[in-house]
Each structure stands twice: as structure tokens, then as C-alpha cells.
Write a structure and sequence with these properties.
about 55% helix, DNA binding, Lambda_DNA-bd_dom_sf, globular, 434 Repressor (Amino-terminal Domain), mainly alpha, about 70 residues, single chain
Length: about 70
């Protein structure tokens, strides 16, 4: 898939663990893990909004398009 999810990179830059992000955005560990590993097929805008607020970043910092 040409959409790359860089959630792990942003979490590392912010020194935030999976558990901490899960608690901040009220999403299960398994759902965040699926996003982090690129296994997710979709993401809700409300989830993306919550992640961006928690990590103080823009959607483009998390999502990347590659041919």
C-alpha cells in the first residue's frame, strides 16, 4: 500500500510509549499497535485528530504517500 504510517517515528520523537498514547486518546492498545505496525486498513478522522493532539503534530507527520 502506498500510504505509510509513521506513528512509531512520531511516538519516538515525542518519547511516548504505546501505553501512554493509548491512555491519552482512549484507544485500545491493539488498535494503536495495528496503526503503528501498518496493519490498519483505515483510520477515522476522530482518531487521527486525537493522535495529532496527543503528539502535537500534523496528519502529514503521521501519514505519508509513496509510489
Amino acid at each position: 500500500m502506498p500510504i505509510i504510517i509513521n506513528l512509531d517515528v512520531m511516538m519516538a520523537k515525542r518519547k511516548m510509549s504505546l501505553n501512554e498514547l493509548s491512555e491519552r486518546i482512549n484507544l485500545t492498545l491493539s488498535n494503536i499497535s495495528n496503526l503503528k505496525t501498518g496493519k490498519a486498513k483505515a483510520i477515522r478522522f476522530s482518531t487521527l485528530d486525537a493522535i495529532c493532539k496527543a503528539l502535537d503534530c500534523q496528519p502529514g507527520d503521521i501519514l505519508e504517500f509513496r509510489e
